[in-house]
Amino acid sequence: MTLPGEAGGTMLQVDGLRSGYGRIPILAGVNVAVAPGEFVGILGHNGMGKSTLLRTLMGYLPATGGRVAFEGRDITKLSPTARARLGIGYVPQGRQIFPALSVAENLRMGCLLSKQDERRTIEGVLESFPRLRRLLDRTGGALSGGEQQLLALARCLCGAPRLMLLDEPTEGIQPSIIDEIIETLQSLSRGGAVTVVLVEQNLKFIAALSQRILIIQKGIITREASPEAVQDPALIAEFVGMAA
Amino acid sequence: MTGWASFAAMVAAGLVVLLGLPLVFDLFGLLQMTVFAAMAVLALSQGFIWGYGGIMSFGQTAFFGLGGYTYAVAVMNMGDSTVPVLLSVLLPTLFAALLGYFMFYGRISDAYIGVITLTVTVILFNVVNSTAGDFYTIGNAPLGGFNGMPSVPPLNVPGDPSSPLDPQQTWYAAMGALLLVYILLRAVLASRFGRVVVAIRENETRAQLLGYDTRLYKLIVFAIGGGIAGLAGCLYANWGSFISPTVFGLATSAQVLIYVLVGGLGTLLGPILGAVGIQYLISVIGAQEMVNANLVLGAVLVVFVLLVPQGLVPVVQGLFRRVPGVRRGQVAEAAPVEVEL
């Protein structure tokens, strides 16, 4: 798939990105380039800036320095809504579904940016999420944590994003659904239609999905590793600060 | 579909009330019910923007008063009430849209929206309160300051100022307006727009991330609420042939919030029942001299906030759901909203 952008097709280009909360700097100059169809994992332990990076990429935190370009266009100053409309989907930590709306309504909410007919969009997305099909009439708030995560992912996909930013999708979720999420994301990523930046602490999850893994420490990307390398306990101990 | 069934039942009940009340009530009772209907329209406006739009307006009375004054001034100048009624909806809608533009596009947080709306209604109160004297006359209509505007001409048959409505017809107009507003809001909430509005209340950030311009949606909800409150103000001014700055007052603002809280936030039926119930209570207390009405209202509010925080309608609905065989297991316990009523 060719996309407008820089030579070689960089979908997301992040240069020297800085941001933080109030006077506390969190990101200290992040550089990342993501090619179309790539699945990039970002690994790091708590407080290193993983979620802050995604929040800044989405426009929820203003960048205090640096530049973010999506498909060749500078989006550093755009609002979150404008970024979403350009084709960036974001599934934040804690899922954030609409608890009072039914699963079907949640999915319909996600269809605003889809160019297809609403029913066909949802039908297409449900093929990847068979578990949700049985739950369409349930309210979002009545689903289990894992089901809510599936719903959040499915709803994001309803908007047909070209780039998905996923913030710790496995947090607090039962292992059986983690495997299901891995399978779903693998099949989506295999087609190459969606590019994913995944932030995670779950090593198994990030290694199963990512083509390359970036390690973030104190607000900068310090190292790039292959999925195999993150199985190495020494590397984990040194850069991630957790046991494999 | 249950949504349709409940809608049809509600409209049928509304029609029964509309047509049946004049048969069972005497003139005094009907007049009282007319003002209850007007207050119920105001309650619906508050219930809609707060319960569904998640907009905490402490000053819905600003639009209520504006609608009342617009009607009074316009009808005194024009004679025929047709255009004044439309103006009483239009002007508050535009004012709400303007105020909403600054609040929502200015990214003012929820708490400050409460403060700003409260301030606006207090400002309007003070402005209108200081309009005594001949200087403050719009056309033929003296604003009258604290004393208000007496002898506001009643509604007439549209286009025919020589046929003013009698009290029974005024009841039909007020109750008809309440029913129409209810139907309109049900339609709005059942539409795609309504779904987005509820979603924004649930999680504004999330809705933004799905590409919705939440500021615009909130602005539209606020403007619709303003228009409905304006209509209520028009009905109110028409009911008593009188309007005074107290419509902008804090007591009225608080009263509307109590209607919605007691009846049930996140429902449409709740605010209507809350308005009628509280107004009835006030009129009963007003007829005796033992207890102060505000004291009782305060007590009612405290009791509801502590013991029945969801309000009456959701609690009754919850009881019905527990009856075996009635939609058991279909509805999530966690769902805080009832979109049906």
Low-confidence stretches of chain A: 1-7
Structural category of chain A: alpha/beta
| Global outline of chain A | globular
Relative strand content of chain A: 25-35%
Q: Give the assembly state of these chains.
A: heterodimer
Question: How do the strands line up in the largest sheet of chain A?
Answer: 6-7-8-3-9-10
What's the total number of strands of chain A?
A: 10
> What pattern of helices and strands is seen along the backbone of chain A?
EEEHEEHEHHHHEHEHEEH
- What is the chain-wise order of helices and strands of chain B? HHHHHEEEEHHHHHHHH
Radius of gyration of chain A: 17 Å
Q: How widely separated are the two ends of chain B?
A: 13 Å
- Summing up helix and strand content along with how strands pair, one would put the structural category of chain B as mainly alpha
Uncertain segments of chain B are 325-341
How much helicity do the residues of chain A have? Answer: 25-40%
- Anisotropy-based shape of chain B: globular
In which range does the helix fraction of chain B lie? 55-70%
Give the integer mean of the pLDDT values of chain A.
86
**Kindly, what is the distance between the CA atoms of the first and last residues of chain A, rounded to a whole number of angstroms?**
36 Å
Question: Largest interface, per-chain counts?
Answer: A-B, 30 and 26 residues
- If you consult CATH, what is the topology of chain B? ABC transporter involved in vitamin B12 uptake, BtuC
- Beta-strand residue percentage of chain B: under 5%
